[in-house]
Amino acid sequence: MSPWSWFGIWSLIALGPIVHAWFRRTPISLAIGASLMLTYLFQATIKWAIDLNLFIQGALIPAVAFEPEHLHRLISAAWLHADLLHLLGNVLVIILVGVPLEQRLGRGRFLTIYLIGVLGGNIGWTLANWESWTLCIGASGAAFGLLGCYLACWPRDEIEFPLILIRRWPVAWIALFKFALEIMQYPTATSNVAHLAHITGFIACYVLAKPIAKGGLVPIGTVDSGPSAKGGHEAQHKAIKSRMRDLSTDPWDGKLTGSARRTLQRLREEGDELETRQAWLEQLAEQAQCPVCEADLTTQKIDEITILRCTIERSHIEWP
Question: Nearest-5° angle of CA 289, CA 290, CA 295?
């Protein structure tokens, strides 16, 4: 097999946990952690078995980063790691910061922020090292990006983090301490750590966090007991409820009679919860007819919210 064939297999391994989590509606943050560990295991195995270093195919190379055939490196570099310690350091931050942040943002917005951190870190490093052929790898830009987003949106949250001691610390303390440390180390750094990628990943997510987080599961700036599995579920439930439409008007203009009229009244009285609204709408679908063509009605769920529709022509009714 050619090196690029092995790289293709590696790419599928990287995508697998994330795609699986997306369709199974499980946490993307945990899936990314699993993805990083699986790709490192594969990377290390083929390096040992056939002496193939995937850095050649996937690492960021600033000198050619923006050439079309090398654009994939702006993403793939974040899934390659130099050694196990490098990997575990990034995974630790991504899990400890990412899980509670995802409970605030929601799955789609979290994945967006993560990728912005990846690109922000890698593009920043590329622009600062325009002519360099030195390889750059690792998910640190994304990890710092998560901290930047959290600082911008929910700085008063407290999360478990190994900052001096492993305990609950305010997000603002963690983010500012880590960012300040990178700022201090960057001018005099002599190691192979890409401090600038950490800084630009952090800044990119900090700047873009609020527009992306707006409309997410939890309002920006919320101060509560902090994110938890229960809190994430409750926040998602609340966000769905906030999209339920008003019931004060109806497409029948008050012309329903008998049992359908009584069901409509009960719907208005008790339909402020997702489950009860669904139940009354299902009953109303059996008792009422389309106000346009008098055909039967059916219920349909759109983004977890139940609505009534005509069985003949969908455009006749979409209520509430």
Answer: 75
Give which of 209, 210, 92, 207 is closest to 140, Cα–Cα. 92
Nearest Cα neighbor of 95 from 148, 34, 168, 14 is 34
**What is the maximum alpha-carbon separation in the chain?**
82
Instruction: Write the pLDDT tens digit of every residue in 294-314.
Output: 899 999 887 678 899 998 888
pTM, two decimals, is 0.77
Where does a domain end: 179, 208, 237? 237
Same domain for 193 and 259, yes or no, is no
Give the chain's domain count.
2
* Contact present, 136 and 197 (Cβ < 8 Å): yes
Domain that residue 82 falls in: 3-237
What's the pLDDT tens digit per position in 1-11? 899 999 999 99
Would you state the torsion angle of the CA atoms of residues 78, 80, 82, 87, taken in this order, to the nearest 10 degrees? 70
Q: Which two tokens stand for residue 277?
A: 């609204």
Helices and strands counted in the chain (H then E): 12, 5
Alpha-carbon span 95 to 2, nearest angstrom: 34
Task: Tell me: pLDDT of 211 over 80.
Answer: yes
Whose tokens are 């509606």? That residue is 25
